[in-house]
Amino acid sequence: MSEPSTGKPYGTVLIKANEILEFLLKTQDAPSLAQISAGLGMAKPTAQKILTTMNQLGMVRRDDQTKRYYIGTQMIAYAQKALASFDIAGAARPFLQKLRDETGETINLGVLRDSKIVLIEKLESPTSIKLQSIIGGTMNLYSSAMGKAVLATYTQSQLRQYFDTTKLTPLTPYTITSQTKLQADLKQIQQTGVSIDNEENESEVFCLGATIHKNHQLYGAFSISTPKYRLPKERRTEFVRLLLNTQHAIEAAL
């Protein structure tokens, strides 16, 4: 059997069904038929026919009382299968390599596992000193740039549970061990989109981090690690710009 063609997409109805799913995914409240039709610029009879078929297939669910549409539970199994087989390292690598080349510093990629960051990719700086992190190693959420970026996405309930089960043990003299100070730090991260590890995880090492997050799904986090002496204020500002540009590029490609 030949490989699928990468040419012009086939099947107008499939394309329109995908547009409907994308619309449902992005809207905060379940939309009505009229809202879907208006939002997509799709004729209401066309939208209704496609939605009826999607409803029969379990791709969407229509609430008969409110006449509003939701993504169907049939899609849960597909989402779980896709996440299980998704290779975030492979998807992010070209962008992280570009970031490494632009900064000349070490770039890390990690994923969340059991309230820790597991390092799954490390692109070494050509002029790097030896850093402690190794592929497969773990970092605390509260002390690492990648970890704090992830913690900043937590709800208050999730954060309380994390604090209830995690002791904020200092790794260096600069590790934040106060819940109040850490929460203030997380609020700053939520505002800027960038987390900072200022010798908190490893002495004399400064890291800037950000999450890879799309459609309410956290895929992981990445960071720029550098000896602190190589990061004056003006260079730090440039690194923040490059970090956020890389984040946006990765998320757009997912």
TrEMBL record:
The keyword Ribonucleoprotein does not apply. GO terms for biological process: negative regulation of DNA-templated transcription. Keywords: DNA-binding, Transcription, Transcription regulation. Transmembrane segments: none annotated. PROSITE patterns: HTH_ICLR, ICLR_ED. Residues 74-254 form the IclR-ED domain. Residues 11-73 form the HTH iclR-type domain. GO terms for molecular function: DNA binding; DNA-binding transcription factor activity. InterPro entries: GAF-like_dom_sf, HTH_MetabolicPath_Reg, Tscrpt_reg_IclR_C, Tscrpt_reg_IclR_N, WH-like_DNA-bd_sf, WH_DNA-bd_sf. This is Transcriptional regulator.
